[in-house]
What does this fold into?
Amino acid sequence: MANSGKLAAEPEPVALDWSATALLIIDMQRDFMEPGGFGETLGNDVSQLARAVKPIAAVLAAARETGMLVVHTREGHLPDLSDAPPAKVERGAPSLRIGDPGPMGRILIRGEAGHDIIPELYPIDGEVVIDKPGKGAFYATELGEVLQRYGIENLLVCGVTTEVCVNTTVREANDRGYRCVVLADGCASYFPEFHEMGLKMIKAQGGIFGWVSDSAAVLRALSPENATTAAAGTSR
It folds into this structure.
């Protein structure tokens, strides 16, 4: 893959140095994606999120092929809930609360089956996994240090949900100076209208938080005919 190039996006194409770009996959966890997890306890139709899996898998395969840095995040809490604010645990009226026993172990607790990433997108050796206690991937995590260590300036962002953890992370990243490109078909929400509006918020006003593209555009940019390898400019 060429070291730099233009990626088709809205509100306009964006030039990226691919050797300084990472793929950031937000919270593709069983607790959000599968029946019996946290998402369903909140009354959501978890099948709404399935549409993002194949586009993410395609971009993940291309990123692995080119040697791009891949970062996965997981939202969840310590078993003693010491990092879970009471206001979060007590909010709303879910059928099961954070920490309660569920079909995939304790709901949204690190180390439980439900907290882990779905098999279709499971991290391989060498990929970074960031465990986060909040919605944003920078809050109370080592993500900033990891990106700095690898010389990352640009983030290809995908995952769930569009309006919550994806939007929060993009806003955090924007304030830290990162260029964020959100993959529209690689994100999803339990509420399709929130997905649509979440993307509009990111690209509004000339890209106030970032750019919106899709998996096909990224795959074209990362294709062998356009390139050599992303690893050429990145030391591991």
User: Anything to note?
Assistant: The chain has a mean pLDDT of 94. Residues 192-207 form the longest helix (16 residues).
